[in-house]
Amino acid sequence: MADVIPTGQERANIVRRAVRVTVAVSAGFYPLLYGAGLPVMALYALFAPIAVGLLSPVPGSGPQRASVMLRALPPALVLATLGTLLAVETWAAVAGMLVVGFLLAFAAVGGPRPMGVAPGLQLFYILACFPPYAPGTLGERLAGLTIGVLLLAACELLLPDPPAASYRERLARTLAEAARGAAPGGVPPERLREAGARLRLASVPSAERPAGAGRTDRALEQGGRAVRRLLDQLATLAEAPPVAADPASAALLERVAGLCTTCSRFLRTGNGPPAAGALEAAMRDFQAERVRLASLPPGERPPVEVERRQSRVLALAESARMVEITADIATHGRPTEPAAPRELFWYADLSTPRLWARRVVGNVTFRSVLFQNALRTALGLAAARAVAGSLDLAHGFWVLLAVLTLGRTTAGATWQAVRRAVAGNAAGALVAGPS
Fold this sequence. Notes:
The chain has about 425 residues and is mainly alpha-helical. It folds into 2 domains: about 10-165 and about 355-430, no CATH class; about 165-350, Up-down Bundle (Methane Monooxygenase Hydroxylase, Chain G, domain 1), CATH 1.20.58. It contains 16 helices and no strands.
């Protein structure tokens, strides 16, 4: 697969990130080393912005990333303390690496932000657990780590990336497009499908994806799928050959268009929810009329093409009803009316702790990719720490850093990352050699 070329906006974000990390590193390292004469504190003040700012792909805007970094600071201090104390023996450091490595890698079940900051937290333990065993420097290590993280968080706020539209806003925009597609005159089918494709999670910045286990995120994700299905059904309806007059379908489509407009406004403002049960009542009347017409004598029944169109219209109305329910749950946090069918909205009445527990327990199995990745990462890091400690490698830290940064889900992807790393290091050595 060819590499994706960054867009202009992505390149600008990369430059801003480099500037933020450089400023944070310089503001912490040089004053502490040359001004205060505290090399240990200076090392950790330099390492913290690199670990969290460069080696951890924390998603989101500047304020979002700063918030994640500040919330990650207490766990980082605990991990640095743990690593410092367990460095007394290789076996203790390896055991700690196994547990810490698994727990932090498994944090991916929490969504993109915990998953993004996990490598940085891993590195705080890794750096501290290597010799020399120096518990007397723990205070300097923690102070330097704190200074580095706070400086980087300040840089995130002072030089932020442009904020991306939230998934809720994207959903509201797409519903407005669906309303136009259901109205007379409609929207070209390709434009409807393009609008639906923009709601795919792969097309949404990771920080804005509804990836949490709570009711709101689940409803937004389910609503996105329902809207995409509705848009595809509208596009298919628009591509169908024209049929004879069908006032029943036109009336139901008008209802769908009105519901999409109302849900779009409701998601944006939280005000003016759609009338509960109005669309469902219209669907029942529509189906009753279809049954009545189907019971007429053969010569008086609607043409087959009209019946097919009515089936499509009824199906897309059901998709719109799904949108109505998910918008209600996403806005209020739980359904204000019974969500039916219950099997589709099983999460609607469960508490947030129970939903999180279901997600965690559901991933504690060898069939879970997240569990496999966490176990693979933990075993790799523990083995690397054991090798580095047993052979007394002078720069054993780099062994673990290589395992952490180059490990991928598959062997092929890992080998590809290793090839690139080797090529980059070789190029760097050739450039640095003559100098």
